[in-house]
Design brief:
Number of strands: 16
Number of helices: 13
Structural class: alpha/beta
Distance between the termini: 42 Å
């Protein structure tokens, strides 16, 4: 017996700069939506005073939770475990745009027992990158190639100012996350072998994409995504598999002092505050998001049998930024997929079946985020 997921109310926690487009979309669709934020006035301003905002206090928030509600946590990643435990306690579904945390493993049986779903990694990166990867890999599989010598997979994403500044970067929100990511060891496949980079910014590659120069470096641990993307069956012929970050040409030179600070273990909290003061977007400036996923495969004669790239390249005024649209629209459209899912429970990254991948990508296209192919 297949039954559609029951969702009563949606609770959106956290109204930072990445949230407004998704919240406003859900409100426009007339879903039963409650918005929560520590600073009510700040959130109301970001939401153009269109939506009532509740002051986020965990005790008061808990009192509003009912079975089959859905919680969206756009709070700092360090708070997701606490919110997940609340979701379990009140038998609620949960959505975050943040990365999967290994600590979630012990929580999954409880979500399954509750017949509830927890979907993470449903923003831009991680999120849309997964959708494009699944779409390309499904297309590659359907071609049923019999002679495959090698597969080269690259997924690169970055946000930066549309008009480059001297620093080759600007911040939409706290720089701390960017600094910590630079300090997080990364793993990927290169020349058929697993490579570990203790300091990812020391592994800069200089590339051309659509006739523009960029810099890339590996992002976190790519290895689990081989299985997530259903590429484990090709593991012996994966010549290159990398999820990475893309930056403007000249970024590594402009950031040399930052790298030295990281090397010297300078307090990242204070460095983050300094960077935030010096490198915020101006009110009427445009941000830009570039994401591409590419698969190139060759046969035993070294001839290309598959070479396709899916990408998005969007710019928006910072007040309604490309980054915030890509992140929060994807969260909102994922919620709609949850509402239409049947008998799905447990903890998962963003949907990867053809129906839901196409639904989210088509909705993004409808809202101006165009996926293109090379």
């Amino acid at each position: 017996m297949f039954t559609l997921m029951i969702i009563n109310k949606i609770h959106w926690l956290g109204v930072g700069l990445s949230s407004p487009p998704g919240i406003l979309y859900l409100n426009d669709q007339r879903y039963d939506l409650l918005v929560w934020n520590r600073s009510v006035d700040k959130a109301k301003t970001l939401l153009k005073n269109k939506i009532n905002v509740n002051e986020l206090d965990i005790s008061n928030f808990s009192k509003k939770l009912d079975k089959n509600d859905l919680i969206v946590s756009m709070l700092p990643a360090s708070m997701h475990i606490e919110i997940a435990e609340l979701a379990i306690k009140f038998k609620c579904h949960l959505v975050t745009s943040s990365y999967y945390d290994p600590q979630y493993e012990k929580l999954e049986p409880k979500f399954i027992d509750n017949d509830c779903l927890f979907v993470c990694e449903c923003g831009l990166d991680p999120g849309i990158d997964h959708l494009l990867a699944h779409k390309l890999i499904q297309e590659f599989d359907k071609e049923n190639h019999q002679d495959i010598k090698s597969i080269d997979f690259k997924s690169m994403c970055g946000g930066f100012p549309d008009m480059p500044n001297n620093f080759k970067y600007k911040f939409s929100w706290s720089p701390l996350g960017v600094l910590k990511a630079l300090n997080t060891p990364a793993k990927h496949i290169k020349n058929f072998s697993e490579i570990k980079s203790e300091k990812p910014y020391k592994k800069i590659n200089f590339i051309k994409f659509n006739n523009e120069k960029f810099e890339t470096y590996p992002n976190r641990n790519s290895i689990p995504y081989i299985n997530e993307y259903n590429l484990d069956k090709y593991s012996d012929i994966l010549e290159h598999f990398e999820r990475g970050t893309i930056r403007l040409d000249g970024w590594s030179k402009a950031w040399e002092e930052i790298f030295k600070n990281i090397e010297n273990k300078i307090d990242l909290e204070n460095l983050s505050k300094k960077l935030w003061e010096e490198n915020q977007y101006d009110n009427f400036e445009d941000d830009r998001v570039l994401l591409y996923v590419k698969i190139n495969s060759k046969n035993s004669n070294n001839n290309e049998i598959f070479n396709k790239t899916l990408y998005l390249d969007e710019s928006r005024p910072i007040i309604n930024s490309a980054m915030s649209q890509c992140v929060s629209y994807t969260v909102a459209f994922t919620i709609e997929c949850i509402m239409n899912s049947k008998n799905k429970k447990g903890i998962h990254r963003i949907f990867h079946d053809e129906k839901n991948v196409n639904y989210i990508l088509n909705k993004l296209n409808e809202y101006g985020i165009k996926i293109k192919q090379l």
